[in-house]
Write a structure and sequence with these properties.
Layout: E1 4-19, E2 22-36, E3 39-45, E4 54-65, E5 67-72, H1 94-108, H2 112-125, E6 128-136, H3 144-153, E7 161-167, H4 178-186, E8 191-195, H5 204-218, E9 221-226, H6 230-246, E10 254-258, H7 267-280, E11 282-286, H8 297-303, E12 306-309, H9 326-337, H10 342-348, E13 376-379, H11 384-390, E14 394-399, E15 402-406
Parallel strand pairs: 1-4, 5-6, 6-7, 7-8, 8-9, 9-10, 10-11, 11-12
Antiparallel strand pairs: 1-2, 2-3, 4-13, 13-14, 14-15
Helix pairs in contact: 2-3, 5-6, 6-7, 9-11, 10-11
Length: 407
Amino acid sequence: MTNRYLLNNIRLESGFIRHNGWIHSTSLREYTLEIEDDKIIAIYEGDMHYPGVTEENGQGRLLLPSTRDEHIHLDKTFYGGPWRAARENNAEDIFQMIALEESLLPTLLPEAQQRTHQLLQLLQQKGTTHVRTHCNIEPTSGLQNLLSLQEALIPWRERVHCEIVAFPQHGLLRSNAVVLMREAMALGCDWVGGLDPSKVDGDMARSLDMTLNLALDAGKGIDYHLHEDKSTGIACIRYLLNALREEPSLQGKLTLSHAYCLAQIETAELSELADEMVELGVSLATGIPLGNSVMPLPFLRQKGVSLLSGTDSVTDHWSPFGSGCMLDKAYDWARLYTRGSEFEVSRSLAIATGNRLPLNDRGERVWPLVGDEASFILIDASCSAEVVARQVAVDAVYFRGKKVWHR
């Protein structure tokens, strides 16, 4: 049965307002969206009414793209349980953290589905309708985490789009996880994951070749965690880029997650790698790290690299500081990389929305357009720059034409 309705009394950004050549604010106009099933089929200026057509009142709220959490771990979280800070463990020592996980994971599994559900509720209330989650695949968990996660996602299918990365957290070779990874891909995982091939597996070429083979056999892409410094991390990136040249079927299907080593090299080498990433369709997923790991993200964006972001752990044995809010990632970008101007802050929203912005750099409205998926959020704010800088709360979330959350 067709679901058709009018969403009226909403505001869209319509352009930048300039004074003496400088952008100092953003103009808005009132619109009505006509939505049928999961698509926007018409956009009208002002208030539109059709006899017999259902209407929803947007109450004058600003309409913005819904957010996308492209890197999170839904399968192992403390969220929804009692307060727990990160364990007093040497997080710089990946092998200590693996040992900690081996003891911790069995204690989390009984409540994993409930906590996944509560964490998804948090993400949705913050405006997210797209999630890429990593799921542990290693001997301690076997396939239990994956099966539990897949079951937890069933009631969310009409509320959020979720992709699963099969993630050998304890090392693909180190934990002998290859067979489990093949089984995980056969069970429907969307991405092949990987982790620090030199530091954890101790054999970069063999580890990466096996990861590439898993992806080729499954016909899926790769999302690769890379925490190694430049002494081994850059070699890993180059190995993967060369592999993509040799295997065109993987081009456009590689995401580098974290890749802190890109912050440790000179501009000339970074520029060269960025050009190759663009040519081969490689994206970078980042948590917008602070402190000593500040990434050269504006430079990479300027070069044309596709940038993704995620809330990562939210709260678990790695860190208790996540908010679950992708708009907070836009705020972090604006604080780190801009001086707070209207134009710069409005551009910061892109890191939270999968690079969808209401206005292009010239101030022309480019979203929403007729034919776009009807996934968006409503916020009581004057413009996207205010939403980012003042961290304005979301009032309503729509996913593929359906209102899935509201205050």
